[in-house]
Amino acid sequence: MANKVLHKSETRGHANHGWLNSHHTFSFANYYNPERMHFGVLRVLNDDWIAPGTGFGTHPHDNMEIISIPLEGGLEHKDSMGNSAVIRNGDIQVMSAGTGIQHSEYNHSKEAPGQFLQIWLFPNKRNVTPRYDQLTLNKDDRNNKFQQILSPNPDDEGVWIHQDAWFHLGSLDKGFEQDYKIKRNGNGVYVFVINGQIEVDDQLLSDRDAMGVWDVESINIKVNSSAEVLLMDVPMSLS
Fold first, then answer.
1. pTM
2. Cβ count near 33 (within 10 Å)
């Protein structure tokens, strides 16, 4: 029997700091909801808007897999491993915090706001050597299909992390329909609609809505109006 959890856009936590306008799918910082702690190993899904020329000063992380997906503008990254880069829409960035890192993230533009998704997953190995990677994706590879952007395998398509998780992005036209098969027994899939309108197993989802489904082998996705969709296929067990 399939299990489902629906997270409508307006039910997310919200913090507006002026320079940062952030919506939290799961409990984060001052937003605490005991029913919204995580979806399996998916711990954080923050939808962040950053004002021009501002950002997150240097701060630490450890034992977390951290993924950044820019939606608009550029995100300037610096870290204690010596990496310095700007990631833009079409890129994906990953950090394995492991034994500990420090990093900063700033809006690269002094004129235009930036938007990005920040996603944290619990790792399946603790205290690994910290690492950083980024990749420019071919956006044509997600036209009316799901482009793999992350996996557990360094030799596979996209970036990799220390977790049995797979992420896919799709830019889908009205009328698109596909069954997505979950990659690993014991995984669930968390569907996040960046924009547009879709149905997941007959549940209607619109801009920034999300639904998690587990204890199934596949889910059905139908597109009602052109949509950008992020699928996060993750272990449901934290052990």
1. 0.97
2. 13
